[in-house]
Design a protein that fits this description.
By secondary structure, this protein is α/β, with parallel strands linked by helices. It has helices at residues 8-38, 74-93, 98-109, 115-123, 126-134, 190-202, 219-226, 236-244, 249-263, 268-282, 287-295, 297-300, 311-314, 318-333, 341-359, 367-381, and strands spanning 42-52, 55-64, 140-155, 159-172, 177-185, 207-213, 231-234, 337-338. It has three domains: 1-72, no CATH class; 73-124, no CATH class; 138-381. It is built from 16 helices and eight strands. It is elongated. Pfam families: Transposase_mut.
Length: 385
């Protein structure tokens, strides 16, 4: 039987030689065209290395005596390298380990890219990250969504610790989404939220109509202290989920139907009527559940004070939840542990940057119809001098 297999090293060598000849021929022609058009004299060659998928190639690059000639050949390659660096960062942001990113780049380019090399590329992102986190904010945001997730981080001299990553998403007065900030702190607390809201204020955010959050520890207190004129909407989706965990399985469908009639009400009277019906049906069996809904009814129904077109997107924190899910997905890819606090911030930054790019020209659903009403609410609550 004949062996038709090809020696890969031989094939790579053939391809490298073909690439070398083709590129050197193109550069020679470039120099000839330049000299014919602009004059001058040839001045030999210099050598330059080029890494390809099939291995490194040494090229003889033509020179012109006065140094005016520059081949255009390397510009696309340089752009390709920049694209590949961006690709490496995107892979890193997606939760792929630095070792695996290096392996993929090595396959694409033929070189060797160690985990430390990829880490150095990622380190170059830190100045952009800090600029993003410190950028000035607009004075007005119609809505601000707040949430937190917990991540495991390796701390020097402490080992692995669980920390809270705080995130803030704003909807501008014109209806566009902006990631206002993200922070990593040891715990989730009233002090933490208060400090973060003060930072937003220092960066220029003065007026907010509505904050939308889960039942985060201390967040209501912090909002009242820093933005006393703002309203607070408690996320109805989170509240429904937490409630269902507190009732028996056989009652969950019935409880969900009754609670849905509250949060899907078209006006406050209808919602309060549904809440009263819920209390009458379930108070004896689940007194604490019913008491919690009554206690938080004002915050759960705050969305009814705003334009109908926007109510579906402001009654829950789902807008920010989508971004948090993406951060969590990368966390799982990293075996749920980050090597440093900066690694957490870099991943959130990459996700935030992609999120903003995705929605930078798209207004929030319903905002177009409600824009005049939102402006009127702003002017009523924050009258301009």
């Amino acid at each position: 039987m004949h062996d038709f297999s090809i020696d890969r090293s031989w094939l790579d060598a053939v391809v490298r030689e073909a690439v070398k000849q083709a590129l050197e021929t193109v550069m020679e022609l470039e120099r000839e065209v330049f000299l014919a058009e602009w004059g001058g004299k040839k001045n030999g060659y210099y050598e330059r290395g080029l890494v390809t998928k099939h291995g490194p190639v040494r090229l003889r690059v033509p020179r012109e005596r006065d140094g005016r000639f520059h081949t255009a050949l390397f510009a696309p390659y340089r752009r390709r390298m920049e694209d590949l660096e961006a690709f490496a960062l995107a892979m890193y942001a997606a939760g792929i380990s630095t070792r695996k990113v290096g392996e993929v780049l090595g396959y694409l380019l033929g070189g060797t890219y160690s985990a430390s090399t990829i880490s150095r590329i990622a380190e170059g992102v830190l100045p952009r990250l800090e600029a993003f986190r410190k950028r000035p904010l607009k004075p007005r945001y119609a809505f601000v969504y707040l949430d937190a997730l917990f991540v495991k981080v390796f701390q020097e001299n402490e080992g692995v610790a669980t920390e809270a990553a705080y995130l803030a998403l704003g909807i501008t007065e014109e209806g566009y989404r902006e990631v206002l900030g993200f922070w990593l702190l040891p715990t989730e607390s009233s002090t933490g939220w208060g400090d973060l809201l003060l930072e937003l204020k220092e960066r220029g955010l003065e007026e907010v109509l509505l904050f939308i959050t889960d039942e985060l520890p201390g967040v209501e207190t912090a909002i009242k202290r820093v933005y006393p004129k703002a309203h607070w909407q408690l996320c109805t989706v989170h509240k429904l989920r937490s409630t269902l965990r507190r009732v028996r399985r056989k009652d969950q469908d019935a409880v969900l139907r009754d609670l849905s009639s509250i949060v899907r009400a078209s006006d406050r009277n209808e919602a309060l009527k549904a809440l009263n019906s819920f209390r009458g049906r379930w108070a004896d069996k689940y007194p604490q559940v019913v008491a919690s809904w009554i206690q938080h009814s004002a915050a759960l129904l705050r969305f009814l004070d705003y334009p109908k077109a926007l109510q579906p997107v402001i009654k829950s924190a789902n807008l920010l939840e989508r971004m948090i899910k993406e951060v969590k997905r990368t966390t799982k890819t990293r075996d749920n542990t980050f090597p440093t606090p900066d690694a957490v911030l870099k991943v959130i930054y990459f996700v935030a940057e992609r999120y903003e790019a995705q929605f930078q020209t798209r207004k929030l659903q319903g905002f177009q119809q409600a824009e005049d009403e939102i402006r009127a609410i702003f002017n009523l609550r924050y009258p301009q001098a």
